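Listing S7. Sequence submitted for prediction.
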Amino acid sequence: MTSSRTVVQPASHPDPAGNYSTAIRAPLTAGTSLLFISGQVAKAPDGTPTAIGDAGGQTARIFDLIEEILDEAGGSIDDLVALTIYIVDMADFSAVTTVRNKRLGASPPTSAIIQVSGFARREFLVEITATALLGEAP
């Protein structure tokens, strides 16, 4: 089977820190595709952590990054069908969900929040993966 998947990497994003893609657009049926967005953390364009110590601020930055990826792929926040949110401290649950709820449209995607013991860098408190259902490729 020949793959016609497309890597999505906005120019404004730091390159991935490992051997993975920021996002992959995969055709589903004629005129539709799925966009799989790798776990996003609160990074500035130069790759440095942002909103250190502020889970709500990190969540807002992550949604900015997700929206940039969706835009690059020809989609929008309304195209999200699934989110998985990883947090280090459940005490941050309210701050994270408040931002999530403000950023999502009237028809929000499925969502799960999972507590983890930590991320590759201690500064990160939140990581979000996402999947979107898109129409025709731009």
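Caption to Listing S7: primary sequence and predicted structure tokens for the chain studied. Strands lie at 6-8, 23-29, 32-40, 80-87, 110-115, 126-134. The mean pLDDT is 92.
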